[in-house]
Amino acid sequence: MRRLYPKAPIPAVAAVIFQGDQVLLVERAKEPSKGQWTLPGGVIEVGEGHIAALKREIKEETGLGIEVKSLVEVIDKIVLDSKGQVKYHYLILDYWAEPECGMLRPASDALSTRWIDIDWVKDINLAQDTIDVICKARAMRKGGNDTYLIR
Length: 151
Known about the structure:
Layout: E1 10-19, E2 22-28, E3 37-38, E4 41-43, H1 50-62, E5 64-80, E6 86-102, E7 110-117, H2 128-143
Parallel strand pairs: 1-6
Antiparallel strand pairs: 1-2, 1-4, 2-3, 2-7, 5-6
């Protein structure tokens, strides 16, 4: 699958993972957004379901096993080059999840991982759509509505 100057959007997944009053962020090791803090996740492979892809990507990037709770948002991540051509286009399914097992450690596409207090996410250099997704997932989590659970 061609990621740079793709012929079509590339489907991807990411997770807003909570632990108490903290959310997990990763520092990206690859483009797009190399060196920036964001949610852990990655591309769905051919023949792989979106939930299986999410669990695999989180395990690969962070070492954690997760329980997927709910779809939070669908985001278009479109990056243009200096000529206005589409350099990257990802269609990202963002989920709310909780850690189930494993030990947090950066791996694969992550330079670093860290838990951050949920109230500080607006003080970090995160993309606005990432902040919005975190806030929406937090609201869903506080609502405690089990109808959101994915089985």
